[in-house]
Design brief:
The complex is a heterodimer. By secondary structure, chain A is an alpha+beta fold. Helices cover 27% and strands 37% of the residues of chain A. The chains are: A alpha+beta, B alpha/beta. Bound molecules: thiamine diphosphate and magnesium ion (MG). Residues 397, 448-450, 476, 478-480, 499 of chain B line the site of magnesium ion.
Amino acid sequence: MSALHIKKGTSKHSAYNLRPTFSDVSERHTLAVLVENEPGVLARVIGLFAGRGYNIESLTVAEVDHTGHLSRITIVTKGTPQVIEQIKAQLGRIVVVHEVHDLTVEGPSVERELAIMKIVGQGDKRVEALRLADIFRANVVDSTLNSFVFEITGAPEKIDAFADLMRPLGLAEIARTGVAALLRGD
Amino acid sequence: MTREMTGAKMVVQALKDQGVDTVFGYPGGAVLPIYDEIFLQNDIRHILVRHEQGAVHAAEGYARSTGKPGVCLVTSGPGATNAVTGLTDALMDSIPIVVLTGQVPTFMIGSDAFQEADTVGITRPCTKHNWLVKETDALADTIHEAFHVATAGRPGPVLVDIPKDVQFANGTYTPPKPSTSHYQPMVKGDMEEITELVAAIENAKKPVFYTGGGVINSGPAASQLLRELVEATGFPITSTLMGLGAYPASGKHWLGMLGMHGLYEANLAMHDCDLMICIGARFDDRITGRIDAFSPNSIKAHIDIDPSSINKVIKADIPIVGDVGHVLEDILKVWKSRGRKTETEAVASWRRQVDDWRKVNCLAYANSETTIKPQYALQRLEELTKKHDRYICTEVGQHQMWAAQFLNFEDPNRWMTSGGLGTMGYGFPASIGVQLAHPDSLVINVAGEASWLMNMQELGTAVQFRLPVKQFILNNERLGMVRQWQELLHGERYSQSWSEALPDFVKLAEAFGAKGIYCDNPADLDDAIMEMINYDGPVLFDCLVEKHENCFPMIPSGKAHNEMLLGEADTQGVIDSKGSVLV
Ligand SMILES: Cc1ncc(C[n+]2csc(CCOP(=O)(O)OP(=O)(O)O)c2C)c(N)n1
Ligand SMILES: [Mg+2]
């Protein structure tokens, strides 16, 4: 407390009251950004991250409101609390951005990602891949005598874990959508 | 009232309906239909610049000196790319301008057509927002929205890219109406935070106001309210380069400019204060110096219309998002209703401390009877012009800092300088824009010879439109600011910082049909300045000054406010290796 009876480092507008904003511990945040679906809007968002040196771990985008022409961009990013605050403020400044939500702070939220993986192999490895896919609730969406294509949804960590298991079993290709996320509850 | 018309006609109609009286531009293939419409009317004056960069800086000068948005019209491809520096400059300094660019016809976009450039792509990071208009029916609304975005919230440059077929085609014109777009920045500050700031004002023992360009952008009422608050509280006030004039230099509580070349008393007050009230400024690195040593013991209140400015560099203890004018009004209201309290005695002793710092006389310099010192030239310019209805522009370099130190600004909108981007070549075209907006005022551009040459072609514009702009060149035959850094930082190795092969500025002026004045003798200076003032037309004043003068005070990069250099004696080995990587 200073002589002015104000606790230094407090800010009512910040969700980070309880720890120093200028801490250098990096955190992972999932942001949901509602934007006008006009040409160039994704370039504005990506350009902001590139130009200011922010991280993008994953990014998904699609129109979610066809009459209002609104798209929802889900961005997973990493940074110190100060950087995360800046990212949100900078996103909020883009004229065609309507809303910025930090699901990590506003949470709890559900995060889901979809991946499809091609596993090439025969014999025991093929059987083992199928067995593990069953455990992970991955679906077979294509198969030949030498290969499977699995489809799996889940939190990114689950997909990472599945991919790690598939690697020695013949993982040949993988495509991931990046995270889509929503707040839980109503 | 909607009407059918061509896109080109719509452009002109929309500008008229937005109250535009002046457009700075340069024609080319992709904007010919619009130029045709300009030819056919007399309400909007078109100023033909000599380079599109000049058009944008002129529009900035116009905007900054009037508070109204400046407007430019340029062609596709090279016309648009030439505008990029001006757009970036306006973005950094929050200047509202609307740039209209021609584009190749929609059906040729993407084909590498003649003079095609991805203008919205190139200018996306250097505009507040931009649009490519693909249908004539959307054109009028887009232009109206462009004016709204340029001026609402934190002002900035916008660009509307208009393909040639959209200009030729017919569509429905819609007049401006109150913006219905979702972009409506918040102007009222949070009352709880404002009350907290008022409490801090009541309890502060060593307070300081730190103000910036945001006060000026907020409009004349904000400057008025600021003056009222400063007079009523008796708190000392300093300002950034961009904010000069919001509080008068003759005011009792004025500390002078702060920052890298700011005044000793201003920087020490910032360093030692217990309450810093930042109003419309953004803790730029030229202001803060070393962040971890920046004003270590103060509570920091930060008023800004742009939430991203708050906590970007310095943690705000009392953050207030809102328009400066609105917030100041509320602060005054709350503070008065609570009985106008301050810690009178403590503040008086703080002011005595500030007066002691003032006695250091940090702007002192060794004058000369044989050579014109740049500081002396500016002191004489101040003395001989201060009673005039005067506007000052600058280029970028030492002369700019000396102008900020030695010229006094009594009102907002009177000082046009490139702060954030530091664009050499800004001042001359800016002075043209200012003179057009204020035809009867004395408009002076304080220039360095090197900066001035960067947009010297605009002398043609000044002569053509009979603009009596005064180009006051402090000619040190050096890239003076670069030379100063090389002296202090790079072992006096003056790599490429000589202005070689300079023109004879008097002859140059005469070649364009302007007046040239040369002066290299302190004894002749007053007469020469008077001759410049009294000449009714553009003047190029070549003022030969001391070549190796350094600009002090100076806070070297990577140093704190209280590690300021006051003069040559302080400069030995000042910037350590860590500081020398900073700019
Ligand atoms: C377009 C541009 N290029 C380079 C610089 C870097 N720079 C800053 S000041 C300066 C020297 C300016 O020389 P002059 O205009 O003669 O002014 P002086 O410092 O001598 O007063 C330079 C090259 C800049 N600010 N802008
Ligand atoms: Mg020079």
